Amino acid sequence: MNLVLAGLTAQNVADMVMGTSGLISLVYLVVILFFGCYGLYGVIRLKKEQYLIPHRLMYPNYHSGEDCADPVEYMDYILPRLTILSVSMLLSGLFIFFGYFIDALRSLIMMLLLYVVPFVVFLWYSACLKKAAKKYW
Fold it and tell me: Which of 33, 99, 101, 102 gives a 20 to 30 Å CA spacing to 8?
């Protein structure tokens, strides 16, 4: 059955299937936008200051910049990955925000992309941090 002919939007289907409400979507939007902005703040600051700064997204769990064996090499390793994570989160959040106003962005495929892609990128970044913990600490 075609969902568009049935008069259902992607958000209606997501609400029915996942039981989400508008408030949960709003919280997700705020969190993902904050996450992207905080990551970009770290990228800009790292490029500007050229030393390991205290930043929660940049280090593997229970590690700090002071304990890093090769800080310069680690900065070269983590900077592009943190940039990819931050930009994907920020773009996804912006598209979700504009999806509230533009009906074309509310298609089921677009909504899946906007929710699945940031999750996959986050999993990839987590794997990179785990690999970095073994290599640089």
Answer: 33
